[in-house]
Backbone:
C-alpha cells in the first residue's frame, strides 16, 4: 500500500511531474497525499489528507517551482487520516516518504529518545529521526546504519537538506523501480508512473541504496560497493493507462477482458496443445508432482479455487488452496514434490510473498501467475508465468482474474497431457473450449444493458445472498467479493446445498438472492435450492446458461448467459457478475475505482 515517487531533473517541473505521477500511484492508497519539492532556495513540503486532485487544486496556483522532489500517496496504517500523519516526514536534515510498516518503531522511539520530538503518530517519522541521528554528511553510510535498526517492510525515498538535486532510496519487500532520460531520473513504487518517461527501467534490489540525480542513477550494496543493474523493458504502451472514454477504469478493464484472456493464452498454444516452452517450464515439473499447493489472496485465491477443481478432476493431482495470509502461520508440512503455485495480479502482495518464502525455505518448487512484470514475486519464484492483461488500475480486479483462470486452465491441460490422465484428443478439445472463452465473454458484454437494469434493483438493498453449486459457487464467491468491495452491500456466497444447514434462516420476504446456474450436471439440484429460497419469499435473480433456461420457473428474473461446456462457464459468469457489481456501485454514485478503505496493492500483513 502507499505509493512513493522521487524525481530529479534539470527543468523546474518537479511540481507537475510529482502530482501527475502521484495520480498514477493513487490506486495504491488514497487517504492522504504529500510531496517535498526542492530548488536553489531550499525544500518545501506540501501535504494534506484527501486525494491528489484536492491537493492539486489547493496549490496549483501557488507558482511552486523546483527541479527535484519526493511524493507519497497514503493508505493509513499507523495513525489516523490527517495532515500531520501524511508524508513526507522530516527530522533535522532528513525528509522522507515511506511505503510499508516498521514493526519495531516503539522500540526505536525508546532507544533514540524520540517521544518528545515526534509530531505525528506514524512509524515513518521515527525512521526520519533515526536516519538524521546517523547523518553526518555521508548519506550512504547513514542509510546503511539506519536500515540495520529497522524491522519490517519498507521502501523509502529520501532527501537530505544539504544535498540538493539528489534523491536516495532503499527498500526491502516493498518495490522501487526507476528510469532515466536525457534530463531526469525518476523512481516510483511501480512501472505505471515511469512509462511516460521511458520504456526501459531498473528494479532496485532489496537492501541496496539508490542515489539518483538528474544526470545519473547509481546503486550500492550495504558495504557501499557499486552494483551494476540490468535494464528491463516495459512491453505495454502508455495509452493502456488512460480510461479511453469510460467513466471508470473498471468498466474499461471489463471491456478489455476478452482480449486479455486471448493475449494470455494465444502464445502458449501450439498445435492445439498448451505449451510452456517460452516460459521455460518443462514437463518434468508436472511429471514429478506429488501435489499442488495454491496460495493467494482475495480474487486471486478465487481463481485458485477454480483451478483446484480442475487440477483434481482433469489432471488427477491432489490440490489444496490456502489463504496466503494464513499459510505460514499454519506451519504446513509440505511433501518435497509439492509444487507451490502463487497467484497475484500485482506480484507484490506481502502475504503471498511470505508464503512463497516459506515454501522456498523448505526447498519446494515455486511457480507464480503474475500480471505485473518486474514485480518482487516474479524475481522470487522458480517459474514466473505472466498473464498478458496489461495494467489493471481499478482496485476491483476483473481482467486479471479471468486471465489468471485462462493461464491456470492451460496448466491443467498441460499437466493432464503430460501425466496421461487425458488423451491428446481430450486435451485438444479442452484447449479449443478455452479458446472460445473470449467469444463467450464478448457475448456477455453485448448484454450488459440487461445486467445494468437488474443492478438498479439492488441499490437500496443492505444485504444479499449469492447461491450456486460446483463451479457456480466459486464464481459467486468472486461475484460476492466484487459486490461487497465496491457497492458496500453486505453480500454472502453460499454453496446452495449448504443453505438448509443454517443460512436459510436469514431468508425472508424480499431478501435478494442472486443465483448462477450453468453446470449441466447440477441443474436439478440447483433448481430445488432456488425453490427453497423462493418459498420463503426471496427475490431471485438467476444468471443462467441459455440451454438451461427452460428448466426455470417463469417468475424468476433471468439473465441469460451464453452456452458452453460447463467447465468453461466460469468465464462468462465471472464477467456477468463483475458487470453486476459495477453497475450497482455506479448507480449508488460511488467512486467505483477507489472503494473506501481499500488499496490495489496490499503490502502490509
Ligand atoms: C480484488 O477485487 C481485490 N481488490 C483483492 O481481493 C485482490 O485480488 C487481492 O488483494 C490480491 O491481490 P494480488 O492479486 O495483487 O495479489
Residues:
Amino acid at each position: 500500500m502507499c505509493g512513493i515517487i522521487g524525481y530529479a531533473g534539470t527543468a523546474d517541473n518537479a511540481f507537475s511531474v510529482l502530482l501527475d505521477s502521484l495520480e498514477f500511484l493513487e490506486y495504491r492508497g488514497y487517504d492522504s497525499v504529500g510531496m517535498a519539492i526542492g530548488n536553489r532556495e531550499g525544500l518545501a513540503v506540501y501535504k494534506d489528507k484527501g486525494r491528489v486532485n484536492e491537493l492539486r487544486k489547493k496549490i496549483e496556483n501557488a507558482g511552486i517551482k523546483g527541479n527535484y522532489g519526493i511524493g507519497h500517496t497514503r493508505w493509513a496504517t499507523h495513525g489516523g487520516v490527517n495532515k500531520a500523519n501524511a508524508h513526507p516526514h522530516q527530522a533535522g536534515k532528513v525528509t522522507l516518504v515511506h511505503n510499508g510498516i516498521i514493526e519495531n518503531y516503539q522500540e526505536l522511539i525508546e532507544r533514540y529518545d524520540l517521544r518528545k520530538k515526534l509530531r505525528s503518530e506514524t512509524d515513518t517519522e521515527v525512521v526520519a529521526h533515526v536516519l538524521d541521528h546517523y547523518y553526518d554528511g555521508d548519506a550512504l553510510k547513514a542509510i546503511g546504519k539506519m536500515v540495520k535498526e529497522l524491522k519490517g517492510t519498507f521502501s523509502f525515498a529520501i532527501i537530505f537538506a544539504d544535498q540538493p538535486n539528489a534523491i536516495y532510496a532503499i527498500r526491502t519487500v516493498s518495490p522501487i523501480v526507476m528510469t532515466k532520460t536525457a534530463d531526469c531520473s525518476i523512481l516510483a513504487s511501480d512501472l505505471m508512473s515511469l512509462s511516460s518517461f521511458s520504456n526501459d527501467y531498473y528494479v532496485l534490489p532489496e537492501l541496496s541504496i539508490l542515489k539518483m540525480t538528474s544526470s545519473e542513477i547509481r546503486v550500492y550494496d550495504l558495504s557501499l560497493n557499486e552494483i551494476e543493474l540490468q535494464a528491463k523493458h516495459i512491453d505495454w504502451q502508455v495509452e493502456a493507462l488512460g480510461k479511453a472514454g469510460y467513466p471508470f477504469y473498471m468498466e474499461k478493464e471489463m471491456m478489455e477482458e476478452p482480449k486479455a484472456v486471448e493475449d494470455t493464452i494465444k502464445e502458449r498454444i501450439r498445435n492445439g496443445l498448451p505449451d510452456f516452452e517460452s516460459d521455460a517450464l518443462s514437463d518434468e515439473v508436472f511429471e514429478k508432482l506429488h501435489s499442488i499447493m495454491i496460495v493467494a489472496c482475495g480474487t486471486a485465491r478465487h481463481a485458485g479455487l477454480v483451478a483446484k477443481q480442475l487440477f483434481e478432476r482433469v489432471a488427477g493431482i491432489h490440490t489444496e488452496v490456502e489463504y496466503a495470509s494464513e499459510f505460514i502461520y499454519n506451519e504446513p508440512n509440505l511433501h518435497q514434490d509439492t509444487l507451490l503455485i502463487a497467484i497475484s495480479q500485482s506480484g507484490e502482495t506481502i502475504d503471498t510473498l511470505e508464503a512463497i518464502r516459506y515454501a522456498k525455505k523448505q526447498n519446494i518448487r515455486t511457480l507464480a501467475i503474475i500480471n505485473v512484470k518486474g514485480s518482487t514475486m516474479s524475481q522470487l519464484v522458480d517459474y514466473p508465468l505472466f498473464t498478458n492483461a496489461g495494467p489493471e488500475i481499478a482496485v476491483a480486479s476483473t481482467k486479471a482474474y479471468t486471465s489468471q483462470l485462462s493461464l491456470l486452465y492451460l496448466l491443467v491441460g498441460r499437466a493432464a497431457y503430460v501425466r496421461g490422465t487425458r488423451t491428446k484428443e481430450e486435451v485438444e478439445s479442452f484447449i479449443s473450449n478455452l479458446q472460445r472463452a473470449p467469444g463467450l465473454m464478448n457475448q456477455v458484454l453485448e448484454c450488459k444493458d440487461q445486467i445494468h437494469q437488474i443492478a438498479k434493483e439492488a441499490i437500496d438493498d443492505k444485504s444479499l445472498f449469492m447461491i450456486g453449486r460446483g463451479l457456480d459457487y466459486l464464481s459467486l464467491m468472486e461475484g460476492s467479493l466484487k459486490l461487497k468491495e465496491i457497492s458496500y452491500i453486505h453480500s454472502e456466497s453460499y454453496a446452495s446445498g449448504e443453505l438448509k444447514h443454517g443460512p436459510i434462516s436469514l431468508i425472508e420476504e424480499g431478501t435478494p438472492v442472486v443465483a448462477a446456474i450453468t453446470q449441466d450436471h447440477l441443474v436439478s439440484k440447483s433448481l430445488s435450492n432456488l425453490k427453497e429460497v423462493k418459498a420463503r419469499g426471496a427475490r431471485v435473480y438467476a444468471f443462467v446458461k441459455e440451454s438451461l433456461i427452460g428448466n426455470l420457473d417463469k417468475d424468476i428474473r433471468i439473465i441469460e448467459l451464453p452456452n458452453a461446456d460447463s467447465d468453461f462457464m466460469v468465464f462468462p459468469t465471472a464477467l456477468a457478475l463483475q458487470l453486476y457489481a459495477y453497475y450497482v456501485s455506479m448507480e449508488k454514485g460511488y467512486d467505483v475505482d477507489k472503494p473506501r478503505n481499500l488499496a490495489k496493492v496490499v503490502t502490509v500483513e
Notes: The mean pLDDT is 94. The pocket of 2-deoxy-2-amino glucitol-6-phosphate is lined by residues 297-300, 344-346, 349, 352, 395-397, 485, 602 (CB under 6 Å). The first helix runs from residue 14 to 25.
